[in-house]
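Re-run with default settings, no changes from the original entry. Doing this only to confirm the output is reproducible before filing.
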Amino acid sequence: MPPVALEMSAWKYRRLMPKVLVSKLRLVQTENILDLVGNPLDQICSRLAKTPYQKDILEIPTQQFSSTLLEEALLKNFIKTVDEIACCSPKGIRALLTAILMKFEADCLKAILRTKSAELEPDQAMKYITPAGRLSAAKCMDIMKNSSSIRDVVKLLSDLEYGHVLEEVLPEYEKTGLLFSLEVAVDRHVYGRIWKAAKKLRGLDGRIARAIVGLEIDSVNIKVILRFKETCVGEDLARQYLMPVSEVFGAAELEGAVRAKEVKSAIEHLLDAAKVSLARDHQHLLMDVMKEYVTHKSMSHLEALLERELLETSLRMLKRYTPFFNVGFVLAFLNLKWFELRNLRTIIRGAEEKMPSARTRELLVLSS
């Protein structure tokens, strides 16, 4: 980057980067997260009270302590961190961060759909739901208590745009019974908003944002193609949910994967496209996907791998962009903070349900 451009970029980020750098240093280390597994709830709380979550945990009334209140304290810390970063961000990046927060709402909404499909009781369901953004803990509980079906859930979301998004694909879900079609519709809507915000950024920020967001969108595209291949659903339906926006997987590349005869050949087609584009992160992702598929031939394993790969990519982004003033470092940090929250909630739920330590570790999304 030319010296003048670097100086302007540094000036634009003069408030933001120190905030993100400090927040990054405050992340709980992987070994410390693993050390929490298998401990009773009170010990987990005691250990977390010695971390950057201290202030939020100490605000929990001692006589009312519960796993739910502990999880709410962790969520409060996440929301506060994101708000502080957004307040320090330049206008365009603030708009992108606002859109990205919808990604966490989408995770919450998909958990609501899954637990309702599984017919879990509200209190039990909330153990698997991480409230986010406009889907507060109270809102999530209200939805779970006042719905007896997926259609009821959609109606109760009518005050948010997700209600309209899900209403459009509800007939397809009721015809096929594929909950995945609802989940992908939510992803498509959210990532469409994020991509639109990323496209508004100019220069280096714009290129980096589109590369990072494009990789996440392609991860969703891979999931869509492989899921529909496994369920043998028609190609036309699969095409409806794809987002051919990145420079690596355009319409032609995704179409070739959709037409592939089976899962393995679809992965091979996408891997070839990534090699042609010299897209290192895509190649790394797809080589791991191929290895996982050949070993297990399980979609649940593949989807867990795709989540872990997003974490690994975020860690690489932190190293790649640390010397510079740009949006890449910010986006990577937010992913890491979200995975930290999810892992801690998984450990808390494991302790509450007296889950075997080995099973809890399996559910964590950690770097290899």
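The CA atoms of residues 228 and 238 lie 6 Å apart. Residues 89-200 form a domain with the V-type ATP synthase subunit C fold fold (CATH 1.20.1690).
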